[in-house]
Amino acid sequence: TDSNGGFKITAQLPNRQPLTEPQTLRAIARRNVGGPHLSPVADVTIDKILETVFLALLATTIGTILAVPISFIAAKNLMDKVRSPLTSVSLSLVGWPLGIWLGASAAGSIGRLLDAASASMAVSLGGAMLSPLAMWGALTWALPRGETRSTSWRVRLVRGLVYVLIIGFFILFLTFLANLGLSLGKWLIEPLGKLDFLGNFVYQLGDSLRMITPVLAGLIGGAALGGLVGRLGQQASDRLDPGLVKGLNIVTAASSGVVVFALIGRVLDWFYQFQDPVKTLWLPAAAGAAVGVVLAVRAQPRATLPIGASAYYITRTILNAIRSVEPLIMVIVFVVWVGIGPFAGALALGLHTVAALAKLFSEQVESILPGPLEAIQATGANRLQTIAFAVVPQIIPPYISFLMYRWDINVRMSTIIGFAGGGGIGFLLQQNIGILNYRAASTQMLAIAIVVATMDYLSSTLRQRFV
User: Fold this and answer.
1) Which of 117, 185, 391, 418 could disulfide-pair with 427, CB 3.0 to 4.6 Å?
2) Strand (E) or helix (H) holding 305
3) Bridge-partner residues for 304, per DSSP?
4) What burial class does residue 393 get, using C-beta atoms within 10 Å of its C-beta: 0-12 exposed, 13-18 middle, 19+ buried?
5) How far is Cα 61 from Cα 50, in angstroms, rounded to an integer?
6) How many Å apart are CA 377 and CA 466, to the nearest integer?
7) What is the phi-psi region of residue 437: left when phi exceeds 0, alpha when psi lies from -120 to 50, beta otherwise?
8) 101-115, 291-305, 402-416, 418-432 — which is least confidently predicted?
9) What's the rounded Cα separation, in Å, for the pair 175 and 160?
10) Rounded alpha-carbon distances, angstroms, from residue 370 to 57, 374, 394, 450
């Protein structure tokens, strides 16, 4: 008993040395009695600092995948001149939400069907290898070389169905790849021994991919359906008489107003739980229809709207709103959602990485040389071809530099979000400070300083060599 009359338990190893510092059973098993060895604190610190580095790598990977396409939308020089007629804009506003719902639903259904079938690692590996091949074959058939635009409507219909099939193959690829990461990561944890953090990293990467697959599928579905109906609206506005275009504008603008305002009402209902369909659905839908009719009546039949500038300002506003929330606050939300651990920290850092990198990437796109852009556009290239051949070659070096710099930032930030349950070395540091074990805390702070300095030198060397 101690001086206050309470009980005090002390664990001892066979050499009778008391364990006064927090440690795991794995660290006790690794300790070699009688020879040179790392202390239990150092052993656990190494495990957690490696977990922190790969947590930051996971967040950087997720953030980069999403930030690259967003950066093109957030670049003013690419979006400023994009204009479309009211019919095309209205149909796109209806097609995008419907396409997002269809894509996300398809991804969810495919994921549920493949959960049992792809439980085997071999099945997941085979599916992940065959899906891109099938997707490439369908894409090659749908986009033949040397063909003119004068194709029949039957061929266009078949190609449209093939495009839907290509999206399905892409969803299959993401689903098989996510299941492969889960199976492979779980299998690697035990054989790797002290390097089991690599298996955990692969598992977390598969889990993250599984989570964002419906999001990616929804965005692809929205872009496909929204672009398709938008092109139909563009053709209708160009070919029909002005009177018919006026009537079509009224109908489509009213429909798009209903969809947009109803979605806004549902989002507000999700946040504030009004539980009143009249206030959150019917009244916003009626207001949206009225706004759409007024806009269509006042606009000229073939007048174009600056949709590029609108998309630019909306995207910038969302990115600024996300960047205004610190990852330490984000991780609290994700801890409630997915539980305490490195996965919550990776999601918080990933979301903040998307906003930060998209801003940096878009500013780099805005500073590219205009000459190649104008030359490619003069040949009649579409927007995708313009970005691929005029923008991408100019932005690859700075994108790589920003990517490595962001990984360095995420390593430092991951030590902070660990205090809120985000895993990594920060979580262990917070525990030791809480129990006043300052000797272990100082060891972990020293490890953090060494890793941050090493990452700085490494990123500087890589930038000098490759950028």
Assistant:
1) 418
2) strand 304-305
3) 85
4) exposed
5) 16
6) 30
7) beta
8) 418-432
9) 23
10) 34, 6, 11, 43
